[in-house]
From TrEMBL:
GO terms for cellular component: extracellular space; keratin filament. This is Keratin, type II cytoskeletal cochleal. Gene3D superfamilies: 1.20.5.170, Single helix bin, Vasodilator-stimulated phosphoprotein. It comes from the Eukaryota. Residues 105-416 form the IF rod domain. The keyword Coiled coil applies. It comes from Anas platyrhynchos (Mallard).
Length: 420
């Protein structure tokens, strides 16, 4: 505690004495200061100061005190003698500065009291702040320990996400390789399909040409059949003609024989002549018939060979066309299967890419969230460290100020003790 007091004593007709004391205690230590001033109200305006005592005590109540005054010797009660000349009326003039000095001293005393009170309040406030800072420091230590436990969990989770991301990237590379292989396979099938389309076009063109040849062969066959019919009709006509001529010749021969038989007087061998002529005509008819039959047979065989050849060519062409159609259908089925497989693979690749991109985006989002949380935690930790550093700086400044005030008080107390 700190206290300050002032007292004034005025001796009527002689002087005025003012006594002021200041005392402070801290931790069982008490100190006091007193001063007494004696003002002469005469024209000389001389001031006599009395210096008071101070006491210092620790637990046992040890005290020390001393008194002193200017111009006097301390001791017991002395006999006081009054100079009678002092009782005579004096021509006194009041110093106009006394009131002002007294007011200034009173204001200074109030200011000192207020400063000491504010100093004590500040010391108490700083002690409370020190306790609060110690509490915050302990809390920050606990939070730091807790955060140090959370950091490995974050690192483990981030490492897990990174492993998942690496796995997805590996799957993406593998799927890209499979996609490239499938694209190469599709290109191969596409080239084969184009080759088959070209072969089909060539086969269709060849089929058209063969169809034209077949049509021409069929027309030749029809024409040859018509010629065969015409030749058959001609042969039949010639045969009937030859038979008619033969019958006519036979009738002429019979008529001639009759005539010759009637003219037997000439002795002609008509029978031999008729037989010879008949043999000649029969030979001519047989040769003509044989030639006609052989020519017809040769023509017929030639037409049959030609028709058979064209028929074989037509059958071969039809078989080739059927085989080409079957091959085209088989290739179309393979192409459709390849297209379906390609579409399925493209859908699977697109789905895998979408899943991979979604997983990568999710992993990146989670990684960004974790990095943001980690950054926020680091910022919070840095902010708390700054606050802690500021609090430590404030605490250090307060400790220094408290120590300074303590040293000042102890120095002042020691100085007062030494002065006493």
């Amino acid at each position: 505690s700190v206290s300050f007091s002032s007292r004034s004593v005025a001796v009527p007709g002689v002087s005025q004495m003012r006594v002021s004391t200041v005392s402070s205690t801290r931790g069982g230590v008490g100190a006091g200061f007193g001063s007494s001033s004696l003002y002469n109200l005469g024209s000389t305006n001389k001031r006599i100061s009395l210096g008071g005592g101070s006491s210092y005590s620790v637990r046992s109540g040890y005290g020390y005190g001393g008194m002193g005054f200017g111009g006097g010797v301390p001791g017991g009660i002395q006999e006081v003698t009054i100079n009678q000349s002092l009782l005579t009326p004096l021509n006194l003039e009041i110093d106009p500065n006394i009131q002002r000095v007294r007011k200034e001293e009173k204001e200074q005393i109030k200011t000192l009291n207020n400063r000491f009170a504010s100093f004590i309040d500040k010391v108490r406030f700083l002690e409370q702040q020190n306790k609060m800072l110690e509490t915050k420091w302990s809390l920050l230590q606990d939070q730091k320990a807790a955060r140090s436990n959370i950091a490995p969990m974050f690192e483990a989770y981030i490492n897990n996400l990174r492993r998942q991301l690496d796995g997805l990237l590996n799957d993406k590379g593998r799927l890209e390789g499979e996609l490239k292989n499938m694209q190469d396979l599709v290109e191969d099938f596409k080239s084969k399909y184009e080759d088959e389309i070209n072969k089909r076009t060539a086969a269709e063109n060849e089929f058209v040409v063969l169809k034209k040849d077949v049509d021409a062969a069929y027309m030749n066959k029809v024409e040859l059949e018509a010629k065969v019919d015409a030749l058959t009709d001609e042969i039949n006509f010639l045969r009937s003609l030859y038979e008619a001529e033969l019958r006519e010749l036979q009738s002429q021969i019979s008529d001639t024989s009759v005539v010759l038989s009637m003219d037997n007087s000439r002795n002609l061998d008509l029978d031999s002549i008729i037989a010879e002529v008949k043999a000649q005509y029969e030979d001519i008819a047989n040769r003509s018939r044989a030639e006609a039959e052989s020519w017809y047979q040769s023509k017929y065989e030639a037409l049959q060979v030609t028709a058979g050849k064209h028929g074989d060519d037509l059958r071969n062409t039809k078989n080739e066309i059927s085989e080409i159609n079957r091959m085209i259908q088989r290739l179309q089925g393979e192409i459709e299967n390849a297209k379906a497989q390609r579409a399925k693979l493209e859908a699977a690749i697109a789905e895998a890419e979408e899943r991979g991109e979604m997983a990568v985006r999710d992993a990146k989002a989670k990684l960004e969230e974790l990095e943001a949380a980690l950054q926020k935690a680091k910022q919070d930790m840095a902010r708390q460290l700054r606050e802690y550093q500021e609090l430590m700086n404030v605490k250090l400044a307060l400790d220094i100020e408290i120590a300074t005030y303590r040293k000042l008080l102890e120095g002042e107390e020691s100085r007062w003790v030494q002065s006493v």
